[in-house]
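quick one before i forget lol
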Amino acid sequence: MSRLFGSVRARATLGATLVVAVALVAAGAAVLLSLRSNLLGEAGTQAERSAREVATELAVGTPYADLSLDVDDRPVQVVDEDGTLVAASEDLERITGTGVEAVEPRPAASPDGTDGTDGTGDAGDTDDADDDDDAGEPLEAGEIGERTTVSDGSATIDGDTEDYRFAAVPVKTEDRGRLTVYAGAPLSAEHGAVNTALTVMLIGFPVLLAVVGWVTWLVTRRALRPVEGIRREMAAITASEDLARRVPVPGTHDEVARLASTTNETLAALETSVERQRRFVADASHELRSPIASLRTQLEVAAAHPELLDLDGAVEDTVRLQHLAADLLLLARLDAGERPADARVDLAALAREEAGGRAGVSVREDAGVAGGVTVAGSRGQLGRVLANLLDNAQRHARSAVEVSVRRDGDLAVVGVADDGEGVPVADRERIFERFVRLDAARSRDDGGAGLGLAIARDVAVRHGGTLTVHDAPAGGALFELRLPAA
């Protein structure tokens, strides 16, 4: 179960189903309430219409016996000011909700045995309309009240009991005083419609939720199928360690497609990094093999023939091994993402320090940098950059090397120029690769491992700068180190 709901597809389906369920319940409740309210309002309107029809007959003096009380088999009561039932539907057996539970009318009888009227609606002895009770809405004789009171109750007519909505309408007559007509409209239609709607909802909502869940499951499965393909391919790449493989990119141009593209870019970068690391290890092994083999040979010869020991050669090979090991260690730290120190370094002073004691090397500072050109970084690493650039320039210069320090806007620029043969345009990026030595360099340098310029550029990049090579004014190579000024 936990594995099932650990699936994105299962969680998406469950979430969508729950959201739709809440929405359906809320909408269903609103529909039922609205339907019930409308049907109750319609029943109230019908009840009021029936009550006003009877009230109109009373207002014009119609006798109780001639009132239209049995239309549509609806319960009707006529009550006088004293709460006495004076007229009612013929088959009314029981009634609640009107305040008058009597079902047998008891009109006041006249001496001649009639209902107190002469058959035309005129009373023999009645008070003037102005003497009537002022209770309730004040009405004139023959006037029907505007206010209608609505209530709910039930009634039994001819053995059938139903719920009704009753409307009470007051009317003022000339001969019988103030009367109240209660007329009811059945609520069976309201109950039937509400029950039908509720039944439809109870049956339809689960079906709709099942459809929503099924559709969501299918849609999410289709949407996540590329993700599963990416996962399987990544698992295969991990198992095979074949970084040349790539994950499939769907043609949907959506987030999943961008994820696949980014994954492939990451794999490409990782493949390049691993290949570079392998090449680095192979080249380092090759470079270390020669001085180690030479040093071993010299030591073996010295052990057999002490008089043949080449002490200077052994020291030279040892120093070469020491420098190579230091270069490899620095490159390893740079590859590991070591951040340079945040110290203040004066490049002009550092250039003078590195150039001091080197034959044929001069330092030129622009007039605007007399106070120094300061950058933030590691003094040791920046000194290593200048030393490598000067070593490279001296190996290729005919007679002179010039170091220049200047400012260029927000950048500090250090240039190292020689008057040698320069660097061909096609090789100006390749010389910054590790263990790369041009043929000319090989003929002039028996000890270089091809790491100096690679280290210099890596340090420059780590300090937020650049290292490029151009043509020098004297015709040789000009290496420019640009760093953000502090």
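fyi Confidence is low (pLDDT under 50) at residues 109-135, 440-447.
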